[in-house]
Amino acid sequence: MGALTTSYEVFADQAVHIQSDFPKFRNEVDEKGKNYIKGVLEVVDISGKFWESYEVEIHWKDGFPFRFPNVFETGGKIPKIADWHVYEDTQSCCIAVLPEELIICKEGITLNQFIANEVKAYFFNQTFRRVEGYYKNGEYGHGLLGIFEYFESHLKTNGDARGMISLMIEIAYVGRPGRTHLCFCGSKNKFRKCHRDAFDKLGLIGKVQLLEFAFTFSERLGYQDLSRRIKSIQGLTNIT
């Protein structure tokens, strides 16, 4: 993205050309003169079986391509409630929890990648629940709970919230241990056999954002000592 290219211009340029890769999508222009994508998304499994089709719109959101655009299911097939992973205030689809989105968008995404990898997966999971009664690929909770569950699933602290937050701080603050070193979690296991994968993945979120998540959890759970530690680290590393 060039220095003078805006987030919207990147989105609009890709939207204009979307039909070449997704024939059932087309570029549209709204009443404010903004480009968006409208079309039909078909859910087809790996065996080629057709499950369902959805009327979908994809609109620019500030931050693209380093954040997801907004996705709307406009045919009324999915309830517009949090339990179905739809934001009730905006009616947009909750494609992924925030830390997962930040990792996916770390190097920037294209609309083609987004539709092929994230939008299709979201609507397949929704379709499976409509047919079978549950999400085939699992789900995280809503809001902050889902973010907490995301970190816990990677750090595997067995519900130990304090321990999880402490590990998040370590990942943000300390350097990556060598593969033969003991893991930073204190388990006395080698790093490569313990939290290496979690360290590498969660580190992609970035030091600033990772500490912000840790601080939010600390404040909500009343761990004031951890909150003070995070503030101290932020001061030492010139993070605001």
Layout of strands and helices, then pairs:
Layout: H1 7-16, E1 25-29, E2 35-44, E3 50-59, E4 70-73, H2 98-104, H3 111-132, H4 143-155, H5 161-173, H6 196-203, H7 207-221, H8 224-236
Antiparallel strand pairs: 1-2, 2-3, 3-4
Helix pairs in contact: 5-7, 7-8
User: Poorly predicted ranges (pLDDT <50, ≥5 residues)?
Assistant: none
The first-level CATH class name of the largest domain: Alpha Beta
In DSSP terms (H or I, runs of 4 or more residues), the helix count works out at 8
> Helix fraction?
40-55%
**Global shape:** globular
Sheet with most strands: strand arrangement: 1-2-3-4
Tally of separate domains: 2
Task: Explain this structure.
It is a single chain. A four-stranded antiparallel beta sheet has the order 1-2-3-4. The protein has helices spanning 7-16, 98-104, 111-132, 143-155, 161-173, 196-203, 207-221, 224-236, and strands at residues 25-29, 35-44, 50-59, 70-73. Helices cover 42% and strands 12% of the residues. Strand 2 and strand 3 (50-59) form a beta hairpin. Helix 7 (207-221) packs antiparallel against helix 8 (224-236).
